[in-house]
Amino acid sequence: MRSKQVLQVLTILCLTLFCPKVKSQAAFNKELPKEFTDQFTKEINDSIPSLGSFIVSQNDRLLYQQYFHGANKETVFSIKSVTKSIVSVLAGIAKDKNLLPNLNTPVLKILPEYNVSRSSFKNISNIEGKVLNDSIKNTLTLKHLLTMQGGFDWIENSKISTAMSFSGDPVKFVLDLPFEEYPGAVFNYNSGESHLFGAALAKIVKTNLKQFATENLFRPLKMNIPRWDTDSMNRNLAGSEMFMKPEDMLKFGSMILNNGKLGSKQIVSSKWIQESTSEQVKLDLWDVMPNANGYGYYWWRRKTNGHQAYVATGYGGQLICVIPDLKMVIVTTCFLNDKNKGRSDIKRLHYFIDKITKEDQIK
């Protein structure tokens, strides 16, 4: 009898020490209480007038799904920079197909048509500075672009980013920018770098990004993408302007949660999911991302009530938040109208995400 009791104690001790996730997942494996959801719905509706949807899924089962301010299941939203995280997965698929070269490959080796040295010109003003800029440009790699460490002199959502979008060739526009830092030295969020990466990826896979995504990601996940805008060279914008319904965003997030799988089908390797969501860049502070703890390959990282989350983030409140140890995906969308408060709405939505992930909210 005594030996049986000792065995039971040892078993409990082992579970406590070596299986901390068991308790965490069990606590979050039930329902959100009605009293909580009623209050939650009222508060979020009142505090974010641009809100279109808020969806919570756990263990591939809907816990909460609400649409706001005239939206419904069929409403299509611009997911803005959530597009970047989808492009990250496309890069992983290309790697699985042995198409993507080593991430330390210089971008200009993939896009040699843009490698035009100015050293042979005699009368260019500040020729020394421009030749130096060209030499730095040749050190720019795919990984620098994937981790927002390109080093370009760039301010997001400024006149420079508007000028890029209006230019005849946005890829050339970005590559002609001066460098503020050496590539790999500093994180600076830059949608121009994402577009440059997308152009290189399209060249690598020998088709446009939408076609590659349709065949290898959207169709297998049964996602409907009615629109993905292009630049003036007819390249899909790798940094923004993809449109989809919230439930399709949830499908994508669920695939990430399940380590790249849909059922038994591997869409992208689990190795890539782990690599792309791990801390590639140290980032402990970001104004709209509470408890930030790093940046991956176009994936933000943060803690929510102590749980590690990977977040695809788009301007104005478009979010896919994946929380692996809770087996949870949270999707939010907002209308980009005059009621939208931009970055403030993103920060506010994280406040509501943290409300969902509190253990005492789930019975």
From TrEMBL:
<dbReference type="Pfam" id="PF00144">
    <property type="entry name" value="Beta-lactamase"/>
</dbReference>
<feature type="domain" description="Beta-lactamase-related">
    <location>
        <begin position="53"/>
        <end position="339"/>
    </location>
</feature>
<dbReference type="InterPro" id="IPR001466">
    <property type="entry name" value="Beta-lactam-related"/>
</dbReference>
<protein>
    <submittedName>
        <fullName>CubicO group peptidase (Beta-lactamase class C family)</fullName>
    </submittedName>
</protein>
<dbReference type="InterPro" id="IPR050789">
    <property type="entry name" value="Diverse_Enzym_Activities"/>
</dbReference>
<dbReference type="InterPro" id="IPR012338">
    <property type="entry name" value="Beta-lactam/transpept-like"/>
</dbReference>
